[in-house]
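PROTEIN DESIGN WORKSHEET
SECTION A - STRUCTURE
LENGTH: 460
TOKENS:
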């Protein structure tokens, strides 16, 4: 149950709704909202290992009363993971000052041109957003990756207003930790100078996965606990799982889930491609497998993602084949993972039956989770993910597109969204003035989606 102290409420963290990602909002259930005495749009403080601020929005009534939904950046800023507990307090907004100046460092992935465009856009897009130095914020429609707040005048929690000068500084990653270091130096004692600046979540987060809530829940249950609390397993004397098999058609999100889980639990990520391993000379494949596992152990906790595992692990037929040797090596390596659960192998395949039974037995890949072709509701969520940063015209209905895309998997829907954006760019006005006006306020329309749908074939 939620517990309240003098002025705070403890809630358990859940991932945000797909449409909320990057908006700096905390969805809070009605009961907690009343306890806190806040209204929709008010700023709240979220305290995990660190403290951050977000705008309060109401939660859907179907969400349990004990839960707060916040996105990956807010989780990183508060130093919490999904499933952990945070304390929410109302923020006395009279203490949130208007920012005179805010310096952001753009994500390294943002090219020069985009950076120029962004500098015009960000101030407006961040209007009324509470920020503090050291935090990361995602800016919808500018980049998928987060910006870092390097510096604010005044210090502490500030609100960006129309009067705020927003400046883009050097990028956050290209020059290593420099920008991060600045961010730490810039935060005043009043803003938790002791706590390190949040580590960038540049990989995918749970909000980037559409239509796979139950599957993701299963994967998390298998993986998060052993990786985050290996000692718990040790104390209980049980062996944490060393492998999980995800099976389903290509493009349904198997890699995405593996990357997101690694990212959310701050684990390292190693990939092995089955076909690539198979193409090596005799002996080299085993060597490469050993190296990957060695690195995984050194950088633990680690998720090793073994893509198209069926290409090595096809049922062992004639004894001396390459498959036999490689499967043997993999079995040895997986059995050799000590029971600490700090390295977990996720295998992906679209042909679960083609996998060597020895690999599917106890202690290896002994859990199988199907990642199927999405249904209409799943397609809708996936489309919400991929159109999140897009300026959609009023006539675009994600529901209608979801209905019209039977047989499309996540990768196809991603392609539909990109194709629609490309169509919009191709069909820009030719007249220079009109074009400039369009560039300032671009729109992707229903007609652009029609063009995209005509060019993308469903995989399933
Ligand atoms: P798989 O590993 O199952 O072959 P991927 O995870 O590599 O598929 O998916 C490829 C791309 O398709 C992803 O990077 C993502 O852009 C998109 N995609 C696939 N499934 C989903 C999903 N369930 N939700 C959102 N995007 C998805």
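SECTION B - SEQUENCE
RESIDUE ASSIGNMENT:
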């Amino acid at each position: 149950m939620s517990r309240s102290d003098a002025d705070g409420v403890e809630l358990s963290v859940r991932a945000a709704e797909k449409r909320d990602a990057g908006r700096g909002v905390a969805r809070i259930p009605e009961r907690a909202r009343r306890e806190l005495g806040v209204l929709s749009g008010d700023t709240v403080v979220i305290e995990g290992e660190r403290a951050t601020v977000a705008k309060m929005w109401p939660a859907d009534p179907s969400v349990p009363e004990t839960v707060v939904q916040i996105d990956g950046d807010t989780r990183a800023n508060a130093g919490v993971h999904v499933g952990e507990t945070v304390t929410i307090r109302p923020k006395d907004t009279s203490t949130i000052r208007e920012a005179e100046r805010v310096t952001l460092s753009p994500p390294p992935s943002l090219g020069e041109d985009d950076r120029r465009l962004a500098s015009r856009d960000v101030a407006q897009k961040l209007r009324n957003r509470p920020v503090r130095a050291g935090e990361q914020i995602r800016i919808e429609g500018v980049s998928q990756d987060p910006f870092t707040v390097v510096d604010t005048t005044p210090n502490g929690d500030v609100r960006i207003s129309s009067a705020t000068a927003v400046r883009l500084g050097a990028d956050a990653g290209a020059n290593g930790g420099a920008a991060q270091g600045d961010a730490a130096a810039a935060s005043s004692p009043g803003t938790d100078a002791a706590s390190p600046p949040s580590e960038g979540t540049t990989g995918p987060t749970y909000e980037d996965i559409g239509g796979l809530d139950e599957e993701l829940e299963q994967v998390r249950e298998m993986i998060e606990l052993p990786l985050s609390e290996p000692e718990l397993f040790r104390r209980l004397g049980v062996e944490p799982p060393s492998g999980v098999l995800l099976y389903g058609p290509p493009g349904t999100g198997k890699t995405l889930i593996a990357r997101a889980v690694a990212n959310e639990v701050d684990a390292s990520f190693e990939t092995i491609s089955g076909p690539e391993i198979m193409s090596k000379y005799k002996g080299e494949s085993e060597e490469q497998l050993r190296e990957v596992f060695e690195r995984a152990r050194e950088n633990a906790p680690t998720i090793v993602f073994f893509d198209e595992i069926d290409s090595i692990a096809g049922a062992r037929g004639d004894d001396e084949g390459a498959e036999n040797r490689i499967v043997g090596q993999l079995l040895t390596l997986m059995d050799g993972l000590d029971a600490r659960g700090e390295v977990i192998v996720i295998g992906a395949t679209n042909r679960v039956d083609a996998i060597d039974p020895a690999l599917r037995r106890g202690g290896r890949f002994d859990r199988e989770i199907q990642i199927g072709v999405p249904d209409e509701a799943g397609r809708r969520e996936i489309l919400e993910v991929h159109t999140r940063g897009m300026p959609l015209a009023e006539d675009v209905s994600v529901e209608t597109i979801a209905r019209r895309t039977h047989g499309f998997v996540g990768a196809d829907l991603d392609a539909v969204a990109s194709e629609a954006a490309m169509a919009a760019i191709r069909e820009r006005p030719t007249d220079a003035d009109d074009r400039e006006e369009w560039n300032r306020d671009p729109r992707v329309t229903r007609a652009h989606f029609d063009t995209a749908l005509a060019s993308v074939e469903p995989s399933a």
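SECTION C - NOTES
The first strand starts at residue 9 and ends at 15.
Confidence is low (pLDDT under 50) at residues 1-5, 172-201.
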